[in-house]
UniProtKB/TrEMBL annotation:
<keyword id="KW-0574">Periplasm</keyword>
<feature type="domain" description="Heparinase II/III-like C-terminal">
    <location>
        <begin position="304"/>
        <end position="490"/>
    </location>
</feature>
<dbReference type="GO" id="GO:0042597">
    <property type="term" value="C:periplasmic space"/>
</dbReference>
<keyword id="KW-0456">Lyase</keyword>
<dbReference type="Pfam" id="PF07940">
    <property type="entry name" value="Hepar_II_III_C"/>
</dbReference>
<protein>
    <recommendedName>
        <fullName>Heparinase II/III-like protein</fullName>
    </recommendedName>
</protein>
<dbReference type="InterPro" id="IPR031680">
    <property type="entry name" value="Hepar_II_III_N"/>
</dbReference>
<feature type="domain" description="Heparin-sulfate lyase N-terminal">
    <location>
        <begin position="5"/>
        <end position="188"/>
    </location>
</feature>
<dbReference type="InterPro" id="IPR012480">
    <property type="entry name" value="Hepar_II_III_C"/>
</dbReference>
<keyword id="KW-0732">Signal</keyword>
<dbReference type="Pfam" id="PF16889">
    <property type="entry name" value="Hepar_II_III_N"/>
</dbReference>
<dbReference type="GO" id="GO:0016829">
    <property type="term" value="F:lyase activity"/>
</dbReference>
<dbReference type="InterPro" id="IPR008929">
    <property type="entry name" value="Chondroitin_lyas"/>
</dbReference>
Length: 550
């Protein structure tokens, strides 16, 4: 009741005079998200609820705040980015306030003294009709709000426009396989809830939503299940914070979200989405291997970066031994341009980079794949920089868990090529010699051994380095949340030339588990024999560049 606004981890800020007269230009933290949520009016929601339940003082206060926004921000507010972005959220608040007024006053028709509220709703509807955000999550949120105005004010034109947009949006936002168009796993989870709201809004106004929303949403639910790690977290891909998969009873991802405690496990161990995702795992849990003890990975390819995507093609995330092994450095929001540029760029992903050349935002093709009981193989190709071609071959072994990548690149001029491996912030990595780095957490019974093998030539000095918490250039960080930044080790495997190959092994094992290898040739196949904590495994690279388990 004192006009105080709080958002995220920022300190509470008094934005008004305590009587509902708000400074709508306030932005003390120079943060566009803070400013947008101020203009959303969602922060007065508890007051609206109290007013709906009979608290006349609360209702009067939130009404004063809302009317102050309407007075200070006349139609059209398009030039005000925060007010513009928040339109659909604010529309829902206006609708809730209208219902609270009717309930508090125990009437069915809005009194004439509140005519300004219906006028504001019409202006918001006009704004959304004229400024549709398209078939992404913003546009869907707008369509739900627009439909709400149409239903509340009995405006069939608003309802039809909203329904037409929802019909267009559902098949764009969720493709025929169930993948989101947002290029971010966090937004997949958000869209599952969003389209549930859309379906409910139609039904609550007596409109049959049809079958498409339900069917596509179920497919998206399966996508979310596969995008869930053995730790019960989402693979942190695109503009996604490090978050748990939210459970929804009866959903296709209930089993994954509860780590096997409820629901039904998906049928597939590996799922490949043409939108650019591979999700694989050793299994979904069993009496012998608990859900959290399975290993899992994600691999990115596909269309150019768009919406909430990052330049992460060919990047992997990896979990084994009940912990994260390889991470995505995360998401910083949109306010800090320097950090956003790094986090969305190639250097913040587990990929081969050319540091001195600009990223071309390539389309990346998955050219080959083979899924077998004890190993999975993939090959991807693209042109990530001018005059550069890149091929990554990936082999994921189980029993023992080993991740193998072969990166091959060619360039018109000699370049420095770096294959980057981003590690969790709770581990610290140290380089040992030219080809090995070891990451571990003090007191933990796990470590990760990273090896660059001397494939097609001896390793030069400086071939293996570790960057931790570096600020210029930025490297070696993890942002699990928008406002949280942690130093984290990045292992850098380097080679230089016009044509290079970098062969990497990522091996999770016990803290005291010995890791050794030997190389040999069998015809034209380069064979690596591994011994990991007493368990033997071998793989080969054929003359054609295929990685195979032997």
């Amino acid at each position: 009741m004192n006009d105080t606004f709080i958002w995220s981890k920022f300190k509470a800020t008094k934005v008004g005079d305590g009587k509902g007269n708000i400074n709508w230009k306030a932005n003390p933290y120079k943060n566009p998200s803070w400013y947008m949520w101020l203009h959303s009016l969602r922060w007065i929601g508890q007051g609206i609820t109290a007013g709906s339940n009979g608290d006349k003082a609360a209702l009067a206060h939130v009404t004063a705040i809302t009317r102050d926004w309407v007075k200070d921000n006349p139609y059209s507010w398009k030039a005000n980015a925060g007010a513009h972005e928040a339109t659909m959220h604010r529309t829902n608040v206006l609708l809730c306030l209208r219902q609270a007024v009717l309930k508090n006053l125990k009437v069915t028709t809005l009194p004439s003294s509140y005519a300004w509220l219906d006028a504001a709703l019409i202006n918001h509807a006009k704004f959304m009709v004229a400024n549709w955000g398209g078939p992404g999550n913003h546009g869907t949120d707008e369509s739900i709000a627009l439909f709400g105005v149409g239903c509340t004010l009995n405006r069939s034109d608003y309802k039809k426009t909203a329904q037409d947009r929802l019909a267009k949006g559902i098949t764009t936002a969720i493709d025929a396989q169930g993948a989101t168009n947002e290029q971010a796993t966090g937004y997949a989870q958000f869209n599952y809830t969003l389209w549930g709201r859309a379906e409910a809004a139609l039904q609550n106004c007596g409109v049959n939503p049809g079958t498409t929303i339900k069917a596509r949403r179920a497919l998206l639910g399966t996508f979310i299940a596969h995008a869930t790690t053995p730790l019960g977290m989402l693979h942190q891909i695109g503009d996604t914070e490090y978050v748990k998969t939210n459970n929804a009873a009866g959903s296709p991802f209930e089993y994954a979200a509860t780590q096997g405690k409820a629901g039904k496990a998906p049928a597939d161990r590996v799922k490949i989405y043409s939108a650019g995702y591979v999700f694989g795992r050793s299994g979904w849990g069993s009496p012998q291997t608990p859900f959290a003890s399975e290993s899992a990975y994600s691999l990115r390819f596909g269309p150019k970066r768009a919406l909430h995507g990052h330049s992460d093609h060919t990047s992997l995330t990896y979990q084994a031994r009940g912990r994260d092994i390889l991470i995505d450095p995360g998401y910083a929001g949109y306010a800090n341009k320097t950090w956003r540029a790094w986090l969305t760029g190639p250097a913040a992903h587990n990929v081969m980079t050319t540091p001195k050349l600009a990223d071309t935002n390539p389309v990346t093709k998955l050219t080959r794949s083979a899924v077998k009981p004890t190993n999975d193989f993939y090959e991807l190709s693209d042109a990530p920089a001018a005059g550069v071609t890149r091929v990554r071959s990936v082999l994921v072994l189980r029993k023992p868990d080993v991740l193998v990548t072969l990166d091959r690149a060619t360039a018109k001029t000699s370049q420095q090529f770096q294959t980057l491996w981003h590690l969790p912030a709770d581990q610290r990595a140290t380089a040992s010699g030219r080809g090995t780095a070891v990451a571990k957490k003090s007191g933990d019974n796990n470590r990760t051994v990273l090896i660059q093998l001397p494939y097609k030539g001896a390793l030069p000095a400086g071939a293996t380095q570790v960057k931790t918490g570096q600020s210029n250039p930025i490297q070696g960080w993890h942002l699990p949340h928008i406002t949280t930044r942690k130093a984290a080790s990045t292992v850098v495997f380097s080679r230089a030339g016009k044509s290079v190959s970098i062969l990497s092994l990522v091996i999770p094992t016990r803290a005291n588990g010995a890791v050794t290898y030997k190389v040999r040739s069998v015809g034209t196949t380069y064979v690596v024999d591994l011994t990991i904590d007493g368990t033997k495994a071998s793989f080969g690279i054929t003359g054609g560049g295929t990685l195979v388990r032997r």
